[in-house]
Write a structure and sequence with these properties.
This protein has 786 residues and is an alpha+beta fold. 41% of the residues lie in helices and 11% in strands. The strands form 8 sheets. It has a 5-stranded mixed beta sheet, with no helix packed on it. The protein has a 5-stranded antiparallel beta sheet with strand order 7-6-20-19-18, with helices on both faces. The protein has a 3-stranded antiparallel beta sheet with strand order 10-11-21. It is found in: Cell membrane.
Length: 786
């Protein structure tokens, strides 16, 4: 107050200006440590997606963030660069990351109601390179971070390097990033060949990629393109005559959505991806930028053999299911070729849909569409009627329910390394993984664990049992009666033959003598460590659901002379320069059962291949090595299993439908020894033929069997699920009549045609011309029965 009035006014004005500036400076200093540093900038500019590779170095998958292909500035059209600078930042070469004149002007126009952006190309690059660090909210905090990062970028890189980085990272919709993929997507050309109009169109999209999308909003796109052209005229790039000519030109888009090149389209790589993301988070790595190389255990050649086996045999089995469920008489042929010949003249699953009206209604009620209809106020009958009339919906439902699925996995018993992994017949159609996600009843493939527990208890393989139905009293007092569908002979039978011929009567008696605790303990020790094992008598017949990976792991433990090894799928991780950043040693083995008992169990399971339910391995596929295995079939032909042990490789397959209310129809093709065995046999035949599996290898103490000619199998050793009936409990009541199985509930004419009188669905489409017959399941006869 001692100062003269004019000085007091000047000081007050000075403080009004200085205080905000000082506050802004303090704010910037606080934000400075929270913005990317020079090292981060260099790493981001050299960003490279991490990849997964097989054990033999073949790329399996990448972790790219969308479709992107980096190009140098020399590979980008000069028209694109000129249009970009003229429109987005015409003083680009004169500032140092921030155009203060443009920033202040944008503030002025925005306050006046005309919102304008003031970001330079360098600031936009900062957002593109570091979206998380800079932030996405439209506020002063994000703007300051953006400016600070832009100044750092300008201090570290030349203008050309900044332009190149920007044009390679800018997003252009349809999961594409960078000018090269944008040129291919919208104009079917390359970045180097973009003309003035194409360049102006793409630059125009930068103001709002969706709003100015030339595919969906061509009118807006033309208007915005012409704005870009006018900016090029304003800054002397175009003369008036050229501008006037170009702005009258139509929008010439040649849209071609680029195929997704991300190779992570297998269940194995999806499984590893989830694991890697967790590992990267714990170890401070970015899988999309750090260029890691993840070395997996997968053998590329074996994976290819597995894929072909699943495709070939899965297609053949699908045709069989289609034909058997197409007509009232399912037929009973053991020839896949016979079904292929009939496939073109039938409507797949026609009889199934026509004869199971209540089940169809149940399927519909379980869909999201039905639940949505009920939530919107529809009655059950109205919702069913409307959805049954919805042809695309019914077609999708039918396809999903009647698609036969297959899971396959192979591992090295000596190391635990996963060598092949197929989670379904087609990852694009079915992402549900039947190797590690699906828990299904293993049926008779669980029986070797029962007999292994007996050997561990001191029982000899030739211990005799009578093939007869016996009563087994459970802990809760109920009585269980194990039976075989083929009946009981009443004769004495060894424990060995009980396993070879998959006798439920013998297995149940062995289970009773061994005790469930011992069986469950061995199952856990061998590798079934995640699935719940119900301590009930029927466990011995494989009624407790498990995953395919667990079962193959258990068989691998047997093949490794009783040594359990946790499955291994990644061996090491290296950085972009080849330096090892993580090494994963093979887990220590655990002795799950004695080596001698494992050898005896393997010998018992050799009999399954030589004279039991797995003889197709010898006679159909001509595999003469020292192998052992077991088939499995569950009630009503719901699940088919087969797992085979070779001294150096163990592989297993599961075959069935996702919904266990849909099954293989015939008892022949419903058996694991007639369906899943085809996948495993096909795989092993290819693996041996390519030299990936040594046909001469033998288990310790074993010997290679005499060659068996391919052809007709003498006799038929069939396997059916059998039953273990429980007494002392009330039988399940018959299903109640479906109140919606009436004309009022959705039956009757649909679109002028008559719906099926039992299912109420629209009539199935008529079959087209017959497809080419599938490849035979092997080089052997298709007429044989196991």
């Amino acid at each position: 107050m001692a100062q003269p009035p004019y000085k007091r006014i000047a000081l007050a004005l000075l403080w009004c200006v200085a205080a905000p500036l000082l506050l802004l400076l303090v704010w910037v200093l606080i934000l400075l440590p929270f913005t990317p540093g020079v090292a981060d900038l260099k790493q981001a500019r050299a960003a490279k997606a991490s990849i997964l590779v097989s054990a033999d170095g073949k790329q399996l998958a990448s972790f790219e963030e969308g479709l992107q292909e980096r190009v140098s500035l020399a590979q980008i059209s000069p028209h694109m660069i000129a249009a970009l600078i003229a429109t987005e930042d015409h003083r680009f070469k004169d500032h140092h990351g921030i155009d203060f004149r443009r920033t202040l002007a944008s503030v002025f126009y925005t306050l006046g109601g005309d919102a304008q952006g003031g970001s330079t190309i360098t600031q936009q690059l900062a957002r593109n390179m570091f979206p998380e660090e800079v932030g996405r909210a439209r506020n002063i905090n994000r703007k300051l971070k953006e400016m600070i990062t832009a100044l750092k970028i300008e201090s570290a890189y030349s203008k050309d390097e900044i332009l190149e980085a920007y044009l390679n990272t800018v997003p252009f919709l349809y999961n594409t990033f960078g000018i090269e993929m944008a040129a291919r997507t919208y104009f079917d050309t390359t970045a180097a060949k973009l003309d003035i109009l194409e360049s102006a169109t793409l630059v125009g999209m930068l103001k709002g990629t969706n709003y100015y999308n030339p595919v969906t909003n061509p009118g807006r796109s033309v208007q915005r393109r012409n704005v870009v052209l006018s900016q090029m005229r304003k800054h002397g790039i175009l003369d008036d005559k050229r501008y006037d000519s170009l702005r009258r030109q139509p929008l010439r888009v040649s849209f071609s959505r680029q195929a997704e090149r991300n190779l992570t389209d297998t269940h194995f790589t999806a499984y590893v991806r989830k694991w890697l993301i967790d590992w990267a988070d714990e170890n401070d790595y970015d899988v999309e930028r750090d260029g890691l190389v993840v070395h997996t255990t997968l053998d590329y050649a074996l994976q290819e053999a597995a894929m072909k086996a699943v495709e070939r045999q899965g297609n053949a089995l699908q045709i069989i299911a289609d034909v058997e469920w197409a007509q009232p008489d399912s037929g009973n042929s053991g020839s896949a070729g016979a079904y292929a010949g009939m496939h073109g003249s039938v409507t797949p699953f026609e009889y199934f849909w026509r004869s199971k009206g209540s089940l169809v209604n149940a399927f519909i009620r379980e869909t999201r569409e039905y639940k949505k209809a009920i939530d919107s106020g529809d009655t059950s009958a109205a919702a069913l009627k409307r959805l049954k009339a919805d042809r695309p919906f019914i077609a999708r439902l039918r396809a999903a329910k009647t698609r036969l699925e297959t899971g396959f996995v192979a591992m090295d018993p000596d190391t635990g390394h996963i060598k092949a992994w197929i989670g379904s017949r087609d990852f694009h159609k079915e992402q549900y993984d039947h190797v590690v996600q699906a828990a299904r009843q293993p049926g008779s493939t669980f029986k070797p664990i029962v007999y292994g527990a007996a050997l561990e208890k001191g029982f000899a393989p030739n211990r005799p049992y009578r093939d007869a139905v016996t009563n087994i009293k459970a802990g809760d007092g109920t009585i269980w009666r194990p039976t075989d569908m083929s009946g009981s002979s009443g004769n004495m039978m060894t424990m060995r033959d009980g396993l070879v011929f998959s006798k439920n009567t013998i297995t149940a008696q062995v289970m009773q003598d061994v005790g469930l605790p011992g069986i469950i303990k061995l199952a856990r020790d061998l590798g079934i460590r995640n699935s719940k094992l119900e301590p009930v008598p029927s466990l011995a017949l494989g009624t407790s659901p498990v995953t395919l990976l667990e079962m193959v792991n258990a068989y691998s433990s047997i093949a490794a002379q009783g040594q359990y090894r946790k499955p291994v799928f990644v061996t090491s991780i290296t950085d972009r320069s080849g330096k090892v950043v993580a090494q994963f040693s093979d887990p220590k083995s655990e002795q799950a059962m004695s080596a001698q008992n494992a050898a005896d169990l393997i010998d018992m399971m050799r009999g399954v291949i030589n004279r039991g339910t797995g003889t197709a391995i010898r006679y159909r596929f001509g595999i003469n090595g020292d192998v052992a295995g077991k088939t499995g079939t569950t009630q009503n032909n719901t699940d088919g299993w087969f797992i085979m042990m070779h001294p150096k490789l163990v592989a297993g397959a599961w075959v069935g439908f996702n919904d266990n209310r849909v099954t293989m129809r015939s008892s022949y093709w419903g058996q694991g020894g007639h369906n899943a065995i085809l996948v495993v046999g096909d795989f092993f035949k290819a693996a041996i033929g390519e030299g990936k599996v040594d046909a001469a290898a033998v288990f310790p103490g074993g010997r290679r069997p005499a060659p068996v000619p391919q052809g007709e199998v003498p006799g038929d050793i069939g396997e059916e699920a059998g039953e273990m009936q429980q007494e002392g409990v009330a039988p399940a009541p018959p299903p109640a009549p479906d109140p919606d199985d009436t004309e009022e509930g959705g039956q009757g004419p649909i679109d002028g045609e008559h719906a099926d009188p039992q299912s109420g669905l629209p009539p199935l489409p008529q079959p087209m011309s017959p497809p080419a017959p599938p490849e035979p399941d092997s080089g052997g006869s298709q007429q044989q029965r196991e």
